[in-house]
Write a structure and sequence with these properties.
homotetramer, 9 strands
């Protein structure tokens, strides 16, 4: 994989997949594409992923990554989800970008009833704004988590958690459109 | 879903999916079936899941759950993976049962080169035994983690992590067969 | 100990003691007294503790607790630290009350140079307000932490962290007056 | 402070103080002395600390640290607690050394009824051995914890936990002699 912008880590991608219940019949929208890491992870397990970014350079990195994995169910789109999300009856929309709460109105229109929107938000202030907007748009009660993965060492001299590690990537917010 | 035996939680299932990279072309073996929760989660995103349990009552619960979700890519098998795993060129084998290290020899035979075995182990002593057996069987260096998901509350009176929560389900051990 | 209002737990008291470096020569101010748990814990290891609360009923519970432990170095004071802290050259001032940032101006006057103020704040919004006020009053850069204590079970059937536990009590904020 | 051997961190020292309830009337034994960090921390709040190490070079570092802080209630002793602990009616004995379970028999003799022994043990295997020995010597049920301190960042751009941090120092084991 070529990496450009910061990527969402497997620990967080795993929770997105598990909490959304996305599967082989699911249609996903991912914005912003970034390096395409999340796009590709969703494409491996879902029917189709539409991935939006405003930056052409990011889309080129993502295109390279999509191709190198031989995935044929990804549509990379240069566009601004704050202005428009063209898809309908979407199962999952993942938002990883600054001011992502501004995409929630369009996300709601694009989602099918019961569909899920996901926000990846490093700071608690962003979470608060996101949650407030979800509430205004009458999404169902959101679920907010942080995922902590701790490495365990099992060695000759003894077993213990790793001394140092990753403490925080971002808060994960999940909310369903009323069904 | 009907629940019988204890189930693996979404937080742990998410990490299994993310760390194994399992997708629509993947063939999985899950043992033991239990209530079929992990079987079903894997079936939603992979090509086929072969799910083993020695207990007929568990398999009946699982069969109910598989049917109610309309999944047609699950084969439930009453059998003992300590004695035999019938499949070949498997991408992922998940082990959630007592003494699961005893299944590793057969798991290795069933896995394709580079395929992954996963162990779900509540106690550190089990992890040590599992890791020792992996080493004897010349699996690649295992990755051992625990996954902690912390609920965050965002409310009128203020934002904070949830007061109480789940601290431990099991250790997750991942190891690849040499490719 | 008689308990009335919610108490600060040993895990948090331990960090207050360790981070403040309070010892046998230290003079402390504690507000609000509450049940007197923190007051008593500080009194056991320091020279003198002045403990403020506006509520007479809480002070009575605290008085009972102080007496039953035979401590003779505690002065319980009915008073409002937002209006006045009578002591001077104080080593440590601990604040556990709503709107505790309103006590910081008086805390600064009461502290000796290099003395430490501590805030016990359940919500992140309170932390932000507290930190902002510290900055205005030219306290040194604050240290903000949360303390997580995880029980470990070592038993015949195996060793593992406790399944459930306490995830959050409050954020702990420490800041020194410039020396 | 001069530092030689690895020191116990304030987070762990805080919990030792809070869980042991050590105060101005308490007599402590600390072994091994190491750099004297724990010895000094206990001396600041207790009546007297007897600190044992077999290594003269460590005791010299500790002596420097004790003197520079002007503490007059520390007795540094070159000696092996596996062979003998000379004190009686001790309130708290802290053990931070390899094979510290071998000191438990002497610790029991030195402790007053209800007194507490503490073990600082990096690996779970050490914890198991320590706990087993406590049980043989009829100490009360031990309390085993790990202490995790997480830094919180409150800044202009937003508030969040620190990205990386310390995950593990050691397991802390506390047990009381029957009273």
């Amino acid at each position: 994989m070529r990496r450009g912008p910061q990527v969402i880590l497997p620990k967080d991608i795993g929770l997105i997949i598990a909490y959304s219940g996305v599967g082989k019949d699911s249609v996903c929208v991912d914005a912003g594409t970034g390096s395409g890491w999340l796009t590709v992870s969703l494409a491996r397990i879902s029917k189709h992923v539409y991935s939006y970014d405003t930056r052409e350079d990011f889309l080129k990195i993502a295109e390279h990554n999509v191709r190198s994995l031989g995935l044929d169910n990804v549509t990379l789109k240069q566009g601004d989800v704050f202005k428009k999300i063209g898809e309908k009856e979407v199962d999952l929309i993942t938002l990883d970008m600054p001011n992502s709460e501004k995409a929630l109105k369009n996300a709601k229109k694009a989602l099918k009833p019961g569909g899920m929107v996901f926000g990846y938000l490093p700071h608690i202030e962003q979470v608060k704004l996101f949650v407030k907007t979800l509430s205004k748009l009458k999404f169902e009660e959101p679920h907010i988590i942080e995922v902590i993965v701790r490495d365990i060492l099992v060695r000759e001299e003894g077993s213990r958690p790793s001394t140092k590690g990753l403490w925080h990537t971002a808060y994960l917010v999940f909310a369903n459109k009323a069904s």
